[in-house]
Each structure stands twice: as structure tokens, then as C-alpha cells.
Design goal:
The complex is a heterodimer.
Chain A: H1 2-26, H2 30-57, H3 72-93, H4 100-114, H5 142-152, H6 161-196, H7 198-201, H8 210-230, H9 233-246, H10 255-270, H11 273-301, H12 312-324, H13 326-338, H14 341-354, H15 360-385, H16 395-401, H17 405-422
Helix pairs in contact in A: 1-2, 1-6, 1-9, 2-9, 2-11, 3-6, 4-5, 6-8, 6-17, 8-9, 8-15, 8-17, 9-11, 10-11, 10-15, 13-15, 14-15, 14-17, 15-17
Chain B: H1 2-23, H2 25-36, H3 38-50, H4 57-88, H5 96-125, H6 130-135, H7 139-161, H8 171-176, H9 180-209, H10 211-218, H11 222-226, H12 229-239, E1 245-248, H13 261-268, E2 272-275, H14 282-288, E3 290-294, E4 307-309, E5 314-316, E6 322-324, E7 327-334, E8 337-343
Parallel strand pairs in B: 1-2
Antiparallel strand pairs in B: 3-8, 4-5, 5-6, 7-8
Helix pairs in contact in B: 2-4, 2-5, 3-4, 4-7, 5-7, 7-9
Classes of the chains: A mainly alpha, B mainly alpha.
């Protein structure tokens, strides 16, 4: 199972590397070049280190061929998972039109690339647009480059099929990561619950950046979590690559920062230099390199304007809003935006508090992640509500961009439930 | 002391009444029927609203509000009832009559679910809001009701099959190490965890059951997705040369699609796009020199764009400023949509 996981994550890292390499080659701006090269080198070094660690740490065991008999729950759950995946493929293969953001941004940039327009030149397309000058550098280029590759290679299927493939990789990754901790049936159950949640499943049938972002970030988080338990360096290496790479898919929400803070908090708690403090520093440094690299390109090379105002007034207004009732109004709207998914996240915190095993510290990393992410989304929405009147429309975007928390939450819920069933007379 | 004793007595009365209620099969049966009647309450609300001569307006508003409250109450009531049943029956033998009541709940719940699903699929075949205009319940409402039904049924199945061991509280642990209240909190949190996992599982099942409506959505064309305004973009694409400029309406709620430059660029690229809101001075018109545009909604008074004054050779692109042009040439007319080429020099 570890070998399959290794192949999957290596494939994801390779895609990211080649996409960044393509970007570097096509954007030959000298200002940006150095930062981009540093970022690529750091990915290559981490990748090489992870491969080396995998080869040396994973002993090859001679397995006697055995006939595995799958139980009824395993068969049912596997069938349900496959049904969802097939359902996604069927829907994407008959897609006649792309959704709004795919048309306006993600697929549009691929079209421009096919016509020879570079990312740094896309701003010039909006010279006669008074409202959307910043638009084409608002999001990093990963999904657009994949679309470009899809069209350039002449793949005879609608581009949304790519996102069904992402869903397959995501389901496989979740199952392989959870299987050693939960066993086959429980990890299949968790996988089914995760990919079946409507807010996540819907991202597999639209050509948006949400699903690849969730794929990279949540697998990165689970790798880091696994590292905190097993202390194998290849988990750390791949975890860092995946988390830092997620910024190249979506940049608006600083979820990588939440991962870094949560990981650093756990590392500080354990005070082991080699095992946790140095990895925390490595994670932080890698993510900062990625952050600075894209930010420099977007703001300096592409001349992206800031869409959020950060003056003293913009800070004071929300603070005063606490006393005028705005905080309550936003809080209620915020809770409504989550819908049924909120129950899952609340349940996962309760589940984490009920867990009784030696992995408690590693699970605390996941709890920090959920709590800090919720806080980030809430305060982000609160501050935005004072600047833009369209803030109530952010509900859908919030649900889609937060789907990386689902595998984390469902893992905690499933693990706690498994423990409850195991100690079934002890509830 | 008297108040404390009264409070304890009150709690005992409520607890005993609740237990008697749950134990009685007719009570379970009756409560479930109330839940199944939720769509009927919505239908009555629609009936009251649409028959304004039957009932006075103030009374109509009051009844409408009451029916909304009733729907919320019945949903929460049914869920609470099965939670309490789950707790109560976890350590007790289920009597034959009670078992029959639960089996009735399961079978009628399945029928209710199937009927709702058929109604939801009917909306897809008819028109949006067909269900609300006919029976007073929207497709989304019925979908949420289905989710709640599945959850209730899952609870009932657990009651029927878990044989009392799953949620049994370990009384020995309570006495030795934990205070009673803390033990109850832990016990309740564990039940909650299992129920939330069941809820999550059911919502994933719901995604599979929603395949048909999602499949239909996946097949919609750009015309269906973006509405009438897509027609203008299609005609512009077919008639305007690729290496030329196109002027489009301002981006606002009047022209949400064709005014949105990033969106229409997807279809019109590599043509240079110019927002009409910027065409308000001579400097910019001289920079552009010539461009094409489609006459939008020529028959409408509030959506018509641009406004042309041919006698004075003036045109308004930004809804306010009149600018002069040198030549306005009709280059194509397709399906009643006219494409013009305008020169400013």
C-alpha cells in the first residue's frame, strides 16, 4: 500500500514540478527568474530527499501470496465509492458548457496560452476594462496550465474529465493514508463520506481550482500528520511539497499558514529539535519561498492591484462593528453558509476530545487546523463584509475552498466511532 | 428547599411522562404521521395564500407564519423523538407492539422518500418552481426533507438492530472514577459522534441519489447557462473579424453577461474588448479609431444599448455621455440582431 501511495504522491509532485517548469520557461522575466529557480530547486531537493528516505525506510518484505477475502461491508463501501467516481466521470464526459469561473478565468487563460499570450501579458488584455484589471493574476496558473496541456495534447474529452481524474486520485490518496490507522472498511467508509459530500463532489464536475487545491493540501496535511506519528522523513518531505505547492493552485486563502502554525504549535509542544522543530522550520521556509515567488510575480511582474484595502479605517470599522451588532449579523450568516457540513466539523472536534490513544498529539495538529481554519474564514469574511457589499455571495466559494478540511474532520470522526464500536460496552 | 423539591418533582414528572409516551406504540405512530404530513402543511399554506377571498389578509399572514413555524417544529420534534427513543431503548427489550410501530415507520418512511424523489424529478421535467406553485413545497425543501427522513430511518434501524449494547452506559465506570454528570456528558458526546457519522454517510448517499438532476445540469448549453445575452456574443463571434475591436455594454445588473468582459472574452478572444463605460471622451475614441458592436435589446426601453442619434452622429455607450462618431455602418443582421461598425476618426 505504501508503494502505491508513494507512486501517487510522486506523480502529483511531478505534475506540479512540470507545470512550474513550463511557467518558468514561458515567463522569462529576469526579476522573477531567481525566485522561481529557488522554488524549483527546493522542490527537487525535497523530492530527492523524500525518495531516498522512502527507499531506505520502507523495507521490502517478501509477501506470501494469499487470497484476500473481502467482507460484505468492504464490498458495499467499495461499490459506493466506485459509484460516486463513475457518476463524476459520466457527468464530466457529457459536459456541454463550463461554469462561470472556468469560462472567465481558468479555461480562458489556457486559451490565451494556446494563442501565445504569456501570463505576464494577460493584464494587457484588460486595458479597456474598468472593473477587472486584476482578474487574470488573481489566481495562480496551475489549473490553466493543466487545461493548456489538455488541449495541446489533443485529449478527446471535455476538460472537466480532468477533475474526475483528480477525484479518483483524491479518493485513492485518502484511502491509502487512512487505511493503516483505520483498517480497510473504516477507511473505505471515511473515503466514501469525504468524496460524497455535496460541496466536495460538486468540485469534481466543474473545472475550478478547488478540487486540485483540496487534493494537494489535504494530502499534504495527512502526510504531515503521519509524520508526527511514524517519524518517517518521506512523509515529511512529501507533506511539505504538497502544502507549499497548494499555494500555486489557490492563493487567496492563506490555508498554508494555518498548516504551518498548527504544525509549529505541536512542534513547540514536543521540543524535539530533530524530530519536530527542524521540520517545522523546513515547512515554514518552503511555504514562504512559494508564497513570495507567486506574490512577487502577481504584484510586480503582472502588476496585480490589491483588491482588499488595508488602511487604519478599514481596520477600525470592523472593530467598532463588534459594538454595533455587525459581529452578530455576520456570525449568523457565517454559520448558515456552512450548512450541514458544520455538523461534521463540530462532530470532529467532539470526536478528537474523545480519542484515547498514543496518537493524541498528532491528532491535536488536526484539531488546531480545523479550529484555526474556521477562525480564519470567519475573520476574513467579517473584514470583507465592511469593504464589499457582495459578501453574502461568498458562501458557495467558502464551502468549496474549505473542502480540504473534510478528510481531516471525517478521519477524526471515523477514528472515534471505530474506538466506540471496539469498546462497545463502554460508551 | 421547597423550590428545589418542586423542581425535582417537575423533572420527575416530565421524565415519567416522556417514558410513558415513548413506550406507547400509538404515540410513536401518531408522531411519525405528523412528520409525514409536513408537505400537507405547506400545501395548506399555499392554499391560504392563493385564496385571498377566503380569509382576511391579516389572518392569512398569521396562518402562513404559523404553518412555517409548524413545519420547523415538526422536523425538530421528529428528530428529537428518535434521539430520545435511541437513548431509551438502548438498554431495554422492544415489545412486539413497539416493534410493529417501528417497522411501520421504516416502511412508510421509504414510501415517503420515494414519493418525494418522484416529485423532485417531476420538477426537472416541468419548469422551475413547478412544485412550489402546485403543492407549496420547493424541490430543495423536499430534498432536505428526504435527508431528514433517511436520518430518522437510520436511527430507527439502529434502535431495532443494535440490541441495546451500543449505547449502554457503563455504570461501574461512573461509580468508581467519574462524577455522574461528567460521565453523562462523555456518554452523550459519544452518541453524538456516532449520529454525526451516520448523518455524514447519509448525506453522501444523497449525492448518489441526486445523480439524475446533476446529470441534467451537466448537459446544459451555454445558451441555457448564460441566458438570452449569449445570442449576442455568438453572433459577434460569427460576424466580427478576429483581429478587431468590440465594444460591449457596461458591466452592471442590466447586462450581467454581455457587460462582463472576462466572461465574453472567452468566446470573443482574440478580439480586443472595450467596455462602453470608458467611451466618454474624445481622447479614448481617437485611440480606438474603429470598432464593432451589437445592438442589444433593440425593442426594450430600459435594456436597449447603445443609444444612437443618427441625425447628429452621436452615440451613448456609457449610459450618460454622448460622443461623436464619423461613420456608422451596418455590417450584418442575424436573427434580428444587428452588428455595426463604428468609426470615430
Amino acid at each position: 500500500m505504501n508503494k502505491v501511495l508513494f507512486l501517487l504522491v510522486s506523480f502529483l509532485c511531478a505534475i506540479m514540478f512540470f507545470a512550474k517548469f513550463f511557467f518558468l520557461v514561458s515567463e522569462n522575466s529576469s526579476d522573477f527568474y531567481l525566485l522561481a529557480v529557488i522554488e524549483l530547486i527546493s522542490i527537487v531537493v525535497l523530492f530527492g530527499w523524500s525518495i531516498f528516505s522512502f527507499i531506505t525506510s520502507e523495507k521490502v518484505k517478501k509477501m506470501r501470496p494469499s487470497r484476500t477475502r473481502f467482507s460484505l461491508p468492504v464490498i458495499i463501501l467499495a461499490t459506493l465509492c466506485i459509484t460516486l467516481l463513475v457518476s463524476s466521470f459520466i457527468q464530466t464526459s457529457v459536459t456541454n458548457s463550463l461554469d462561470w469561473d472556468a469560462v472567465a478565468l481558468y479555461d480562458a487563460r489556457a486559451k490565451f496560452l494556446l494563442d501565445g499570450v504569456k501570463f505576464s501579458e494577460m493584464k494587457s488584455l484588460t486595458s479597456f476594462d474598468f472593473k477587472n484589471g486584476y482578474y487574470y493574476s488573481l489566481y495562480p496558473p496551475f489549473t490553466s496550465i493543466l487545461h493548456f496541456g489538455w488541449y495541446r495534447f489533443g485529449i478527446p474529452a471535455p476538460v472537466p474529465v480532468l477533475y474526475s481524474l483528480f477525484l479518483v486520485m483524491f479518493a485513492t490518496g485518502i484511502f491509502l493514508m487512512l487505511h493503516p490507522r483505520l483498517g480497510i472498511s473504516w477507511s473505505l467508509l471515511a473515503t466514501f463520506i469525504v468524496i460524497g459530500q455535496q460541496n466536495l463532489f460538486s468540485t469534481s464536475i466543474i473545472a475550478y481550482s478547488n478540487l486540485p487545491y483540496t487534493l494537494y493540501l489535504s494530502l499534504g496535511i495527512l502526510f504531515l500528520h503521519r509524520y508526527l506519528i511514524d517519524k518517517k522523513n518521506w512523509y515529511l518531505g512529501f507533506g511539505i511539497i504538497l502544502v507549499m505547492s497548494s499555494q500555486w493552485i489557490r492563493f487567496l486563502e492563506p490555508s498554508w499558514l494555518i498548516v504551518v502554525i498548527s504544525f509549529a504549535a505541536i512542534s513547540w509542544k514536543s521540543l524535539s529539535l530533530r524530530r519536530t522543530i527542524i521540520p517545522a522550520i523546513l515547512l515554514t521556509a518552503s511555504c514562504i519561498i512559494s508564497y513570495v515567488s507567486w506574490k512577487y510575480f502577481a504584484e510586480v511582474v503582472s502588476q496585480k492591484e490589491t483588491i482588499f484595502q488595508t488602511s487604519l479605517l478599514n481596520f477600525l470599522e470592523p472593530v467598532l462593528g463588534i459594538f454595533t451588532g455587525s459581529l452578530l449579523i455576520i456570525s449568523i450568516a457565517y454559520l448558515k453558509m456552512w450548512g450541514g457540513t458544520l455538523i461534521i466539523y463540530i462532530g470532529s472536534i467532539i470526536a478528537a476530545l474523545n480519542l484515547q490513544d498514543e496518537e493524541a498529539k498528532a491528532d491535536l495538529f488536526l484539531v488546531f487546523l480545523i479550529v484555526l481554519s474556521f477562525s480564519m474564514y470567519f475573520f476574513g469574511l467579517y473584514f470583507i463584509s465592511f469593504q464589499f457589499e457582495w459578501w453574502p455571495e461568498m458562501g458557495g466559494s467558502l464551502l468549496r475552498s474549505s473542502t480540504f478540511l473534510l478528510p481531516v474532520a471525517v478521519y477524526l470522526l471515523t477514528k472515534a466511532t471505530k474506538q466506540i464500536f471496539k469498546n462497545k460496552t463502554k460508551i | 428547599m421547597g423550590i428545589v423539591r418542586n423542581t425535582i418533582n417537575m423533572r420527575k414528572i416530565i421524565k415519567d411522562s416522556t417514558i410513558k409516551f415513548i413506550e406507547h406504540p400509538a404515540a410513536l405512530f401518531f408522531s411519525w404521521i405528523l412528520f409525514l404530513l409536513i408537505p400537507v402543511v405547506n400545501f395548506l399554506r399555499l392554499f391560504i395564500i392563493s385564496h385571498d377571498k377566503l380569509v382576511d389578509e391579516n389572518l392569512r399572514v398569521l396562518l402562513s407564519k404559523l404553518s412555517q413555524v409548524a413545519v420547523g417544529f415538526l422536523s425538530i420534534y421528529s428528530l428529537s423523538l428518535f434521539f430520545v427513543c435511541l437513548y431509551y431503548f438502548s438498554n431495554r427489550v422492544i415489545l412486539k407492539q413497539q416493534r410493529k410501530a417501528f417497522l411501520f415507520i421504516v416502511s412508510s418512511g421509504v414510501i415517503f422518500f420515494v414519493i418525494n424523489s418522484l416529485l423532485i424529478s417531476l420538477e426537472g421535467r416541468k419548469f422551475p418552481n413547478y412544485l412550489y406553485s402546485t403543492i407549496g413545497s420547493t424541490a430543495d425543501f423536499l430534498s432536505n426533507l428526504n435527508l431528514l427522513t433517511l436520518f430518522n430511518l437510520a436511527l430507527v434501524l439502529i434502535i431495532l438492530f443494535q440490541r441495546g449494547s451500543l449505547f449502554h452506559m457503563n455504570s461501574k465506570a461512573n461509580k468508581s472514577s467519574l462524577s455522574k454528570k461528567f460521565a453523562v456528558i462523555i456518554h452523550s458526546s459519544k452518541i453524538l459522534i456516532v449520529l454525526i457519522l451516520i448523518f455524514s454517510f447519509i448525506s453522501s448517499i444523497n449525492t448518489i441519489l441526486n445523480f439524475r438532476s446533476q446529470y441534467k445540469n451537466a448537459q446544459i448549453s451555454y445558451e441555457q447557462r448564460f441566458g438570452d445575452e449569449y445570442e449576442f456574443v455568438k453572433i459577434l463571434k460569427a460576424t466580427v473579424p478576429e483581429r478587431s475591436s468590440v465594444i460591449h455594454p457596461p458591466q452592471n445588473s442590466t447586462w450581467p453577461f454581455i457587460g462582463n468582459q472576462p466572461i465574453i472574452r472567452y468566446f470573443l478572444f482574440p478580439r480586443r474588448l472595450i467596455s462602453g463605460v470608458l467611451l466618454n471622451n474624445r481622447k479614448i475614441t481617437q485611440e480606438i479609431s474603429a470598432a464593432y458592436f451589437a445592438e442589444i435589446y433593440s425593442e426594450s426601453t430600459d435594456k436597449h444599448w447603445p443609444l444612437v442619434d443618427t441625425s447628429n452622429k452621436a452615440i451613448i455607450f456609457d449610459q450618460k455621455t454622448s460622443i461623436e462618431y464619423s461613420e456608422l455602418e451596418k455590417v450584418a443582421e442575424v436573427n434580428g440582431v444587428v452588428i455595426y461598425k463604428i468609426s470615430f476618426l
